[in-house]
Amino acid sequence: MKLIIGGAYQGKLDYVLGRFGYTRDDVHLCTMGEAALNTDKPVIRGLEKWIFAMLEAKRDPVAGIEELLPALRDRIVICTDLSG
């Protein structure tokens, strides 16, 4: 897994698309209401939204990611840094 973290609107997706040769069709965009993480596409964008959905559902996001590690092995995951 490659993890790309940075501030909002800093060009993370454009960097990934250009650097690794993917198109927007290769990107799964996580949503706040997504209960299960879709790992079918090579690029997963917005992981922080999936984590928020897990927390809202009173589920452990760490355990959820640990379960998904085999499926994420060859994926690029993009997260927005929310630390402020």
Task: Describe this structure in a few short sentences.
This protein is α/β, with parallel strands linked by helices. The protein has 3 helices and 4 strands. The chain is globular.
Architecture blueprint of SSEs:
Layout: E1 2-6, H1 12-20, E2 27-29, E3 43-45, H2 47-56, H3 61-72, E4 76-80
Parallel strand pairs: 1-4, 2-3, 3-4
Strand order of the largest sheet: 1-4-3-2
Q: Give the structural class.
A: alpha/beta
Rg value = 12 Å
Shape: globular
Order of helices and strands: EHEEHHE
Helix content: 25-40%
Mean pLDDT: 93
Number of helices: 3
Instruction: Give the distance, in angstroms, between the N- and C-terminal Cα atoms.
Output: 25 Å
Care to count the β-strands?
Answer: 4
What percent strand?
15-25%
Q: Give a short account of the largest sheet.
A: 4 strands, parallel
The stretches of 5 or more residues where confidence is low (pLDDT under 50) are: none
